[in-house]
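ESCALATION

Customer reports they have been waiting on this structure for their group meeting. Please prioritize. Original submission:
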Amino acid sequence: MSSEGKEENQKPNHIEITDSEENDNPTQVDPEQGRQVPGQTDEEPATKEKEELPPPTPEELKELRQRATKAEEYYDRLQRQVAEADNLRKRLAKEKQDAIRYANESLIVELLPTMDSFEMAISAAENSDDNSIDSLKTGIEMIYTQIKRTLEEIGVTEIDATGQTFDPSLHEAMSRMKTDKAEEGTVLEQTRKGYRLRDRLLRAASVIVAASPDDTKEETEQ
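Update from on-call: job pushed to the front of the queue and completed.
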């Protein structure tokens, strides 16, 4: 048999048909069944599906709650520290201001007995019949007025307690006197002046307080 006859007797198992527009995806034809078989390519198109996260486990939920609790504790602690720092800043500012406002407090307290002495000297001179001390009285009054004006300029004020209701924060009761001419607890007499430096008490006023005539308490004197 010739070589040409051998070539005619050989039948191909598959005939490959290639689409000119889609050279990358050839199609094979099965001659026995007469239908096309999709060609297999070296690489299949990758399809990625969105993966859903699994729900947290009880252990993970417990850990999240613990972390949230810790975060709240740290936040509360931070807020307290901020508030404490702000209060400290305000307190230091007030202390600095008070140090300036009341810098002369101790000196003024020591000066008050001198004011008392001047007042007693003036009172004695007014009750004297000796005309020779008039000039002395005038000099004492001038010095007293000058000191009093200086104290007022730096914020010192007198406490006038006579006729006022007894106030333990401003007055010091030296004695109680029964009377029906004033309500109980009224200051009848001020035996020594009190003084304040701005809003701070330097010395309480020494006073005699009215008591009810029916009061069984004995009159006391300190």
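Sent to customer with the following note: The chain has a mean pLDDT of 79.
Escalation resolved.
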